[in-house]
Amino acid sequence: TATTTISCGTSCLNQSWIESSDGLAFWPFDGSYVDIVGNYNGIPSLNLPTFVPGYLGQAASFDASLQQAMYTSFIPLNNVSFTIEAWIKPTGYPNPRDHSIVGLCPSKIVDRCLHINIRNKKLYFGFYFDDIQDVTTIPLNEWIHVVFVFDLTTKVQTIYLNGFQDVQSTALHSFEGESGNFTVGINQGVDFPYSYFQGYIDQLSINRRTKTPCEILEIATLTGHFKFDSPSTYIDSGPNAVATTFSSTSIITGYKNQAISFSGLSASYFQTWGFTSFGFSNKPFSLAFWIKPQILSGTLVHLSTSSQGTGSHCFPLLGFDSNGAIIAQVLTDNNIVVTATGSILPVSSLWIAVVQTWSSTNGLKLYVNNILVSSVAAPTFLASETTPNYLTLGNCLNGCDGTCSNGLVSRPGPFTGAIDDWRIYNRELTSDDVCTLYFSA
Question: Is the pTM value of this prediction over 0.70?
Answer without folding.
Answer: yes
